[in-house]
Amino acid sequence: MKNVLVTGANKGIGYEVAKQMAEMGYFIFLGCRDLQKGLEAVNSLKELGISNVEALKIDVSDLNSVQEAASALSSKIEMLDILINNAGTAGTQPQNISQCDMSVVKELFNTNVFGAIQTTQEMMPLLKKAIQPVIVNVSSELGSLTMQTGEERNSNWDLYPIYGSTKTALNAFTIALAHEFKNTKFRINSVTPGYTATDLNGFAGFKTAAQGAKPIVKLATINADGPTGKFFRDDSEVPW
């Protein structure tokens, strides 16, 4: 049974990703900043008859927490097959880039970018032991510079310029990491769940969390011949 770590997995899209992949036969570690909420999420899955799940305390914005989580995982498993960097925050809106408080900028980058990077770094020893390691960074259309400057740009994106910037940076991390591990067994990609109704956007999205989870699950379960260094959504590749 392959081992999967999903960060930010006690609710929303992360929870649905954990549920769908557990139903497919993977063993899922639900990474949660609040362990109690993680245990509650695990209990709710077990009530559905899903037992191949376990809560893991991890605050991706706190390096000590990430290191403790990596140590805890190393004591439980020999390898980590799939890492899904899903944990994120949208911050308060609107985010007027010319006058937004720098504390908001730092909070978003600390979680959405630095959190994903340090989680990946600390989990890398376990990932390298996997036969076919996969890393999925959960991004957003707002991270696409092409879409931000093209006809697909949505007017409500003006509410999230800092959040969008963090996702652009996350995509840059995906590209850099994929190049670092090119011609290896690693498969490293970004994916957007689409405009999904979660507490990240006040449940304003038109997709359900279960629907938003599907493209993430699809990319997380690619085979050895799958893509790497790319950005995807439901039905197609997304331009950087």
Describe this structure in words.
The protein has a single domain, classed as Rossmann fold (3-Layer(aba) Sandwich), CATH 3.40.50.720. Helix 1 packs across helix 7 (209-220). Strands 3-2-1-4-5-6-7 form a seven-stranded parallel beta sheet, with helices on both faces. Strand 4 (82-85), helix 4 and strand 5 form a beta-alpha-beta unit. The chain has helices at residues 12-23, 35-47, 63-74, 102-128, 145-148, 161-180, 209-220, and strands spanning 3-7, 27-32, 53-57, 82-85, 134-138, 187-191, 231-232. The chain is 42% helix and 13% strand. The protein is an alpha/beta fold and 240 residues long.
Q: What's the overall average pLDDT, rounded?
A: 93
By CATH, the superfamily comes out as: NAD(P)-binding Rossmann-like Domain
Gyration radius (Cα, Å) is: 17 Å
Number of helical segments with 4 or more residues = 7
Q: How many domains?
A: 1
CA-CA gap between termini: 34 Å
Question: Could you say what the CATH architecture is?
Answer: 3-Layer(aba) Sandwich
Shape: globular
Order of neighbouring strands in the sheet with most strands: 3-2-1-4-5-6-7
**What structural class results from the helix and strand content?**
alpha/beta
| Assembly category | single chain
Helix content: 40-55%
Topology as H/E string? EHEHEHEHEHHEHE
Beta-strand proportion: 5-15%
The residue ranges in which pLDDT falls below 50 over 5 or more consecutive positions are none
What characteristics describe this protein?
7 strands, 240 residues, globular, Rossmann fold, alpha/beta, 7-stranded parallel beta sheet
